[in-house]
Prior knowledge:
The chain is mainly beta. It has helices at residues 4-11, 33-37, and strands at 66-69, 74-80, 84-87, 90-96, 100-103, 108-120, 123-136, 141-153, 158-165. Residues 6-15 and 38-62 have low confidence and may be disordered.
Amino acid sequence: MLPKNADNQAKGSGAAAPNGPPGETAAPIMPSRMEGARPAIVRRAREYSGTLAEDRSVGAYGDSKKLIVGREISLNGEISACEKLVVEGRVEANMKDCREIEIAESGTFKGEAEIEIAEISGTFEGNITARKLLIIRSTGRVTGKVRASQMEVERGGEISGEIEILPEAE
């Protein structure tokens, strides 16, 4: 027997009841009690007050200019105007006009990089210029031409190649 309100809805559908006698119509599918308890998630496009430059929340450091190359991902080419590059995979590139690079233990960077700050826990091969600071962690390996204003090397970290200490910028 169908509920009174469901009976009226089911009569016009003509659908047979799944395990009932022929000619009897199926009851409409009713949501369970748990479905009614969950709030609907509504996603809206982000609103801003005009141009992106005017909106202080868009383009903040690390927000829109952060590039992450994940594990098992390879990237080739040229990288510019990047606030921070995080390398967990493999990158073969030339990097200019960027602020910071972080190479994770699993990461490899091959090429040239001109940045302000570099933190290397993985492998770097090529030419690197760190205008402010170069940090080589205990698992880090750097091979090539290294130029930096300040340099920190943890016990276990390795540097192989030409090293030049730059005068500190005022």
